[in-house]
Amino acid sequence: xxxxxxxxxxxxxxxxxxxxxxxxxxxxxxxxxxxxxxxxxxxxxxxxxxxxxxxxxxxxxxxxxxxxxxxxxxxxxxxxxxxxxxxxxxxxxxxxxxxxxxxxxxxxxxxxxxxxxxxxxxxxxxxxxxxxxxxxxxxxxxxxxxxxxxxxxxxxxxxxxxxxxxxxxxxxxxxxxxxxxxxxxxxxxxxxxxxxxxxxxxxxxxxxxxxxxxxxxxxxxxxxxxxxxxxxxxxxxxxxxxxxxxxxxxxxxxxxxxxxxxxxxxxxxxxxxxxxxxxxxxxxxxxxxxxxxxxxxxxxxxxxxxxxxxxxxxxxxxxxxxxxxxxxxxxxxxxxxxxxxxxxxxxxxxxxxxxxxxxxxxxxxxxxxxxxxxxxxxxxxxxxxxxxxxxxxxxxxxxxxxxxxxxxxxxxxxxxxxxxxxxxxxxxxxxxxxxxxxxxx
Length: 441
Prior knowledge:
The chain is of the alpha/beta class.
């Protein structure tokens, strides 16, 4: 992300000041820069701690044996792309480096570093204070807030870690004005989407974002449209919501009905008749890739039908901005599902969008259990605590795994799930069938 702290021409001719990847120099007691995006050169100092916290023996065995472990009549197949992606590894590593660099300072985290309860708990145990978004316009599934973060308690001498999802331009500006140290772990894939949304706003296009309006990443992405005067956005969750937008474009739905439906997920002062003349599609990086692409095609065809092919060519843009790690994990699951499997276990936070996308893919083919943590699998009772697709609460199921017949269990994990938790889950699956995971070598 380049430094865009100046002003540039927007749809109305001017732009509000924008906040970019900048090296701030506001004094904060250190006499040096206050913005860091490349760590502190302390990787070697914290590597052993990271390894002990997040590596997994059984995962290493699976990788060494073509992602297959068999003990007795139980076979476990691990998807070939799973768990921590580079962006997540980087975010967690920088948080550890920040604690090492500033041992005596108050360190805050703007929300959750990633959507994994184990990782977030580890950071809290290191004395990092989480500043969670308020309820705002309401809470969505998984309990993610829809509002802003209260930074009123942050002082210039404090340190604030920006999560992998990023923060809104308003929150960034607030922290810059405070003058605190900022450790920015925003994922590079997220920054790529931000650039796309910013370019839409610069060129007078409204950003139609495929995502969850309450999700931290989506709120941060949508805010990029506000860098330019008149910049607008509208967030749609799925194909059904995209179809509602198409109904307006093609004259089957009134502007007031559209605003009533999407008022919570649109930019302030959004006016459909004005703001849906030129549309650029973007997405939350962890959504289901095929759905993001389908939404782009749907809206593009709708504009062509309503206003003509030439108009659509000039006034509609769409790009695939799903991150490569998300795409690779989805592709790996699709490949694994071609095999005969009796059950699929998906490991990751219940508020992790990329994990939910994996669970959705698996559920189309095989009986699937989305667990948040390895502890959700209880070998002693033979139960599994999981969250069914689309549910808001987790449930407990018994006899989820045959006690006697040969079984093949597929396993994958979201990009915010560390290897040790994947390995623990694999061990608990074996233990459910009476196989001691310690005997697997």
